[in-house]
Amino acid sequence: RNENVFPQFDALTNLYSYAKYVTDLEKAIACEENLAILQIQVEGFNTFNLIYGLDYSNELLRLIALQFIYMMDMDKAVYRLEGERFVFILKKAGREELLQFEQQVRCVLDTGIMVEEEMTSLKMASGAILLENYQGDSSSVRGQVSYALNHSIHKHQGRLVIFNDEVQTSRGVDLALMKV
User: Fold this and answer.
1) C-alpha distances in angstroms, 134 versus 26, 49, 50, 93, 172?
2) DSSP per residue, the chain
3) Which end of the chain is more exposed for a tag (fewer CB within 10 A), N or C?
């Protein structure tokens, strides 16, 4: 029995777990020429928890996950990170495919999820990174896509932020080491 094995699936949503994301990202970086990583945060979960309770929020997360599963194909995978954060690996994807897919995800959430006979429309923030023949390590990529998501949340009212497009200096700090 190996107690150090991390689960490959998220217990609540049945999506792939963070541990699987790390492994799959490393494999994708090694094998794919073009790759896009999209990380999102569904907004408003603190409000849902306060108003409707944890059971409602958990059911909403399960139903969101189901909608995301319907969007997958052989070149896409979805993972639940923590809370209301999700990440997608898009293989063989460039800028256009990333932009189209991000809009599809946004549309699914905006259209709404039916929970307890009530349609719940959701907003999201999103950050992404485009990788083309990338030779670096996956931990840098994970940090960069998280940075893009946090920048979306705090500076861009949830609009998509693509790390590659961001100015490489921030408050006088040179981010050139983060450059892809």
Assistant:
1) 11, 40, 43, 13, 27
2) --TTPPPSB-TTT-SB-HHHHHHHHHHHHHH-SEEEEEEEEES-HHHHHHHH-HHHHHHHHHHHHHHHHHT--TTEEEEE-STTEEEEEEET--HHHHHHHHHHHHHHHHH-EEETTEEE---EEEEEEEEES--S-HHHHHHHHHHHHHHHHHHSTT--EEGGGS-SEETTEE-GGG--
3) N
Give me the amino acid identity at 16.
Answer: Y
Q: Which residue has the tokens 């990440």?
A: 87
The one-letter amino acid at 30: A
Q: How far is CA 60 from the centre of its chain?
A: 17
Task: Give residue-wise pLDDT tens across range 49-94.
Answer: 999 999 999 999 999 999 999 999 999 999 999 999 999 999 999 9
Instruction: Give me the amino acid identity at 10.
Output: D
Give the tens place of pLDDT for each residue, 127-161: 999 999 998 899 999 999 999 999 999 999 999 99
Structure tokens at 115: 């929970």
